[in-house]
Amino acid sequence: MISPDIVEQVRHACDIADVIGSYVPLKKSGAKFKALSPFQKEKTPSFYVDPGRQIFKCFSSGHGGDVFKFLMLMENMTFPEAVRRLAQRAGIVIPESSGPQDPQARSRREELHALNAAVAAWWQKLLHSDPAAEPARAYLKSRDFPSSLADEFGLGYAPDGWDSTLKWAQQKGYSMEALETGKLVATSESGRTYDFFRGRLMIPVHDDSGQVVAFSGRLLDPEAKAQKYVNSPETPVFVKSKILFGLNKTKRSIIEAESAILCEGQIDLMRCWQKGIRNVVAPQGTAFTDQHARLLKRLAHKEVIVCFDADRAGQAAAERTIEVLLKEDVQVRIARIPQGEDPDSLLRKQPVEVFQTILHDAKDYTRHLLDTTCETEDISSPRGRGEVAKKMALVIMKIPNAVQREGFLLEVARRLQVSRSVLEEEVRKAEAQARRSVNDRQRHDLGTPEHEMPADGAPETPQEPLQPDKLIEAMLSLLLTTPELVPEVSRKFNPAWVEGLAGSEVLLRLLDAHAHDAWQDAMQFMEECDDRTRDYLTGLLMTPSPVPDEATLEAYAAKLVQNLEKRWKQQRLQFLNLATKSSELSVEERLKYLMEIQVIRRQFPDLEP
Fold first, then answer.
1. How far is CA 6 from CA 1, 88, 94, 209, in A?
2. d(CA 231, CA 520)
3. What is the pLDDT of residues 566-585, one digit of tens each?
4. Which of 261, 265, 262 is nearest to 218 (CA)?
5. Is the pLDDT of residue 450 over 50?
6. How far apart are CA 65 and CA 19, in angstroms?
7. What pLDDT score was predicted for residue 584?
8. What does the alpha-carbon distance between residue 85 and residue 90 come to, in Å, rounded to a whole number?
9. What domains are defined for the chain?
10. How many CB atoms lie within 10 A of CB 57?
11. pTM
């Protein structure tokens, strides 16, 4: 419960014209301000703000009230949420009723905000003037990243010294406790305290009220065996699942456009901003969460356009993100970036109109999935068409709107050149399997004894322990205990080599966590796995797979990658040899297969036919 005195204090501290002006462009009209309604489309302004009375009125929609009412309407907030948001904006501390330690917690949060802002400003100054920051300046220059854009987003440079930031902060009067709580320092196994960020280009992360709450550090030495990006761990002021990078700048544009463009990386977002594309956000070094989706749904009423990198890791992240958005009933379209590109590289090479056309032509997610699935499967063969039909059946059965469902079903049938009834049968199978899975989970959750199960239900049997392929197990063991090897492994590894193998989904999830800066440590990774996987990984950490005595860890990792590729190429070679003997192949397809056989033979001459 927030006391009336505090509510009035917040009301008087927040000028309604300043608050509304951060959402809507206001124009002076006598003693008042006017604007187009933020609540519905109109051509003539009917929205007025009276700074003398501290009220607003929208004559087209009928809405009106004080600053709290405006925030409740714009952000879909409750009254207490609006008061707290504006209190944070004004720097007013709201007394809580949860216990006597709250004042200490508030003081700690305030110190962390002040510390983050001060460190961000110092790092920004170093980026401009410190000779040691030349690699960071050279990196930005190589990316055609102007200093004006770097300044607009507060980019900086963390010095490469062991404890340079630590000493600077202590000289400025910040406590060791604040540095540790804010995760700006860490402690080695020997007990020595050192800077968490060293020798990196620094990108400050803001909450949606504009306060610096965390940092993301970009590796500058391409030869260094370290993660490309290192992100702040969670702190009392930074919860990854609640932060979308850039939202403090782009929120107003998203609301005006009723649409959000979701990019994969921070550089992508900043490049879009530079080119005038402002309704953009990016996840902050973590998987896209339900909270992220709810936040975007509240701001982008019309749609979210997912615009991730065209590589395998980017597309895998896009698929997971789409699932989360769809759960929250968000309209999703997919922008297809050319292979090998991302928004940053594309906007550097091509006129902005090229990217705008890609966004304009972005397809509904169902059409996108159909296109990409048809590209990964050979739909000229019966087997390929069958695989696409199974995957699309899973999509069709989740479409709630009957008209949309029927239209997409017919589109898939036409693309695969199969009858409507054949595809409907696949959908029925998928729905039946889904119902069985739900029933099994419900029986398990309720603890239903075997003799009380329905007569047509299969007895509940314990899941078999996870038993990954031996090569995958060796790779998992190595990367869990030596995560610094992941960047080199990822550069040489192709996910297709492990497709369908036991344990492959765990390995791919691990590599994907690193690729999208969501990796903290093995324990955090296991917490996000299901019970069966967690049980297996716990045992693997307890008794890791042995590494040959004569091999370095780098050489052993390279050998594992090579063995995975070689085994897949052996299987591929056997398939190609059989396929070339088929009478159903066209001349072009047979020639393509023969050329692939030659490529594999040159790479691995010792493979069996």
1. 10, 12, 7, 19
2. 9
3. 888 888 887 788 777 777 66
4. 265
5. no
6. 13
7. 66
8. 9
9. 4-90 (3.90.580.10), 102-238 (3.90.980.10), 246-361 (3.40.1360.10), 385-452 (no CATH), 470-603 (1.10.860.10)
10. 16
11. 0.62
